[in-house]
What we know:
CATH superfamily of the largest domain: P-loop containing nucleotide triphosphate hydrolases
CATH architecture of the largest domain: 3-Layer(aba) Sandwich
Largest sheet: 6 strands, mixed
CATH class of the largest domain: Alpha Beta
Strand order of the largest sheet: 6-7-8-3-9-10
Structural class: alpha/beta
Number of strands: 24
Oligomer: single chain
Radius of gyration: 25 Å
Amino acid sequence: xxxxxxxxxxxxxxxxxxxxxxxxxxxxxxxxxxxxxxxxxxxxxxxxxxxxxxxxxxxxxxxxxxxxxxxxxxxxxxxxxxxxxxxxxxxxxxxxxxxxxxxxxxxxxxxxxxxxxxxxxxxxxxxxxxxxxxxxxxxxxxxxxxxxxxxxxxxxxxxxxxxxxxxxxxxxxxxxxxxxxxxxxxxxxxxxxxxxxxxxxxxxxxxxxxxxxxxxxxxxxxxxxxxxxxxxxxxxxxxxxxxxxxxxxxxxxxxxxxxxxxxxxxxxxxxxxxxxxxxxxxxxxxxxxxxxxxxxxxxxxxxxxxxxxxxxxxxxxxxxxxxxxxxxxxxxxxxxxxxxxxxxxxxxxxxxxxxxxxxxxxxxxxxxxxxxxxxxxxxxxxxxxxxxxxxxxxxxxxxxxxxxxxxxxxxxxxxxxxxxxxxxxxxxxxxxxxxxxxxxxxxxxxxxxxxxxxxxxxxxxxxxxxxxxxxxxxxxxxxxxxxxxxxxxxxxxxxxxxxxxxxxxxxxxxxxxxxxxxxxxxxxxxxxxxxxxxxxxxxxxxxxxxxxxxxxxxxxxxxxxxxxxxxxxxxxxxxxxxxxxxxxxxxxxxxxxxxxxxxxxxxxxxxxx
Length: 609
């Protein structure tokens, strides 16, 4: 291995943990070998449980390898972890801000902890506040900041001293696209100005494409590594775009392609069409493929890092091909089983399931949501989008009946939420961003408890538990404490609980936050199948490519509705041509920036009046 100029060198690394409940040893990392160049940004990507966080903690000197060597900045991590910690900065997934302390007080506290001299703080603080845009908010309590601002403050606290190596563990999870762009600008500026080495784990493959080196981890092993271009080449010659003739949601064709696992490795909506990857044995003009495409024109496209990632992951899972196919089949089966119970969705597609008129929510003098109006029909997938602090979470909580409106009209599933919240709640399901089931209860105990809470009893409860256990592939896990489940299975259990009572409306609060592309594909296949049965889906997400799964979306900022319509209509509302390639992240950023520029001009006009 060529290790010249490496900031981190790892050879023959193994790490395992003891499961205290079962007494079993769990292998977290096996035979890891890598050399990360100094002065670069490198990324770790991979599914939940791949070993990314464990690897970062070993580099930070917070864990000790069982065997093998870890050398950071020329220092042996086993012999002198403190010397490493004195020269690096590490931002874990849940960075510990003190929410009752102000921005300035948090900075001072971390500077004290790191022994930053008083004369060094003034210049360092000024630079960090300028880079993060927090200069105006130094007196604001950290708990009053938006999610994106909290992440930027966490990064600033991590950087109160100038490190030689910066370790970032999924710093942009739960952060809106605008804040993600700003965070990456900060990191890149630091790398250039201070010749900093940065190692980041991320669930966003477009972020990893910015990096010099990318390491793909799976079940504790390095599956592949190289430049983004080199990893993209794993999908070279196999990536195509299906250009739809109709204006049906692209998720419909995507679902058909995903269900053909004998030909298709991956399929995802993109720009109103469907991007897909063929397996190595299928040609783009194969008759069987043309039948699935149903007349859609096919164009070859250049591979992206995400395409290469999906090829690598599918190849790794090839030995478990039956399980992969069963997973997609179980997702698709939601359409059949639920349709039999509820009837076809198309019969009631014009039925309004949610109606909102002039909805307002105030917290004291602060208006969190201001005169918002929209309606959602049965079987629609409706996306609530907006920057952190825009009011979408408040709107979402009012729609769920978790927060009363200050004024306005709000009707859900035919029930007025302002006067009969309990009745409305019986007709809705809810899956929160953070796992909110009882971690010390088993999978079966959670299902039984929440089924009872929804009013299910006896034979009906047993039938519904059997159904969701099969649909979400929870067999064999019934006695497992839910807190011990991997992230993907926790999400499945949360979905199973939310659908136990067969609700008319399912609310999903950033359900794919922090999950890898493989898990997101499976999740959206299930959601597509549910919508086909007539279940109405309301979802919040910071993955803007996921907006293309939605029939319609709303974008909020500063508590007000800024755009409403299909993804294509919102693209036009952002000022783009209807015939130009759709880019939902650009549409989102353009709409928010335009609204903020208009608000700033209005404030200036008032000030000069």
